[in-house]
Design goal:
155 residues, seven-stranded mixed sheet, alpha+beta, Nucleoside Triphosphate Pyrophosphohydrolase
Length: 155
């Protein structure tokens, strides 16, 4: 039997030298309790950039804009094959006000932290650097990406 294809989109959101990861819930059909980049399925008829913006908002409560394309890969599951497209993303959020003793980057970082609300598909989120990333249980597609793109500059 030929397995159907699905399309998913993922975003690399960087803050300083770290990226945002989400942890899938224990009862997830794919990659339970694994860490991954925010993103998800592209709905039929949906443009993939619209899907990434929607999924990022649904999973993190963050409004993003899409930057450069980074990588594409195929991930196989018992019930389907998935093509994963990975992009750089940035938050569309400017600080509302800045006090004299608070830098712009610290104000944005504070607002991002306060604004992140994860979906019920995930149990946790964290900002990680490359060293910490290597010690986490990652989604299957994320491991493929890291092995193929290990020279990627996270900075």
């Amino acid at each position: 039997m030929q397995l159907p294809y699905g399309l998913t989109v993922r975003g690399i959101l960087k803050k300083e030298n770290k990226i945002l990861l989400l942890k899938r819930v224990e009862n997830s059909k794919t990659n339970p309790k694994c860490w991954e980049l925010p993103g998800g399925k592209v709905d039929p008829g949906e443009f993939f950039d619209d899907a990434l913006i929607r999924e990022f908002m649904e999973e993190t409560n963050l409004k993003i804009e899409i930057g450069d394309f980074v990588y594409a890969l195929q991930d196989n599951y018992p019930h389907k094959r998935t093509v994963v497209l990975i992009f750089i993303v940035e938050i569309i959020k400017k600080p509302t006000s800045i006090s004299n003793n608070e830098s712009i980057s610290k104000k944005i970082e504070k607002e991002i932290k306060e604004d992140i609300l994860i979906s019920d598909e995930h149990s946790d989120y964290k900002w990680v650097d490359m060293k910490e990333l290597r010690n986490l249980k990652l989604s299957s597609w994320f491991n493929v990406f890291l092995k193929s793109k290990c020279e990627y500059d996270w900075k």
